[in-house]
Amino acid sequence: MPADTDNPAGFAEAPHYHGHRERLRERFRDAGPDALSDYELLEMVLFRALPRRDVKPLAKSLIGRFGSFAEVVHAPDARLREISGLGEAAIIEIKLIAASASRVAKGQLKQRTMLSSWAAVIDYCRTSMAFADKEQFRILFLDKRNQLIADELQQVGTVDHTPVYPREVVKRALELSATAIIMVHNHPSGDPTPSQADIQMTKSIVDISAPLGISVHDHIIVGKNGHASLKGLRLI
Q1: Cα dist. 222→129, 190, 218 in Å?
Q2: 156 pairs with which residues across the strands?
């Protein structure tokens, strides 16, 4: 058998993408995550699940389909399964990033006075809900020191509606001995502008809760394009 003149030692050459992976890791380590584009960061997420593939085309395809790194990691499992070449192991790695981000953001709220950590509140709400494909209604229940008692997802609706029952909201606050609440829901359209129904529902909860000593600190609407505060807009 003739000698392999390109590889005289007889060893198999590493696939071309191995060097690319190492260069990405070095850039991430030396320059930080901001030095990587969305698709490059997504490549690094996929490395472990797909160790024997060039994942660059797949990462670019995912960004092209969903729009950004954040939208990929928060995409519904069913839509991720539509992507050719993306198996269950890779989907789990992607969803692990979303879960980790939400857990970190939630951890920053614990043992803090909520009203003095408003940026952390907004970060957590956007991380948890902004990219969901259905409307979700969440309530943060607070004690008299404005510290978090509970964070509960109350309802999941359709792409543009979530049924909310004001008396059930107040009932749950009483069960938890909460003295204040912050309501949060998302607009899957991306536009966080409150609807007339959002405003009316919020005012109904304010009217029911006030005589019972429960304060509605705010109703925050989040979307991938930002957030809106009904209190900040002077709508409550």
Answers
A1: 7, 8, 13
A2: 136
Task: Please report, for residues 42, 109, 175, 201, 213, the alpha-carbon distance to residue 170 in angstroms, rounded to integers and kept in the order given.
Answer: 42, 22, 9, 12, 10
Neighbour order of strands in the sheet with 148-156? 148-156, 136-142, 180-186, 215-223, 226-229
pLDDT band at 52 (very low <50, low <70, confident <90, very high): confident
Confidence grade of residue 91 (pLDDT, cut at 50, 70, 90) = very high
The token pair at 136 is: 């979700």
DSSP-derived letter for residue 89 is H
Report the half-sphere exposure of 76 (CA within 13 A, side-chain side): 8
* Distance set, CA 8 to CA 4, 11, 17, 18, 64 (Å): 6, 8, 22, 21, 42
pTM for the model stands at 0.70
Give tens-digit pLDDT for 203-217.
Answer: 999 999 999 999 999
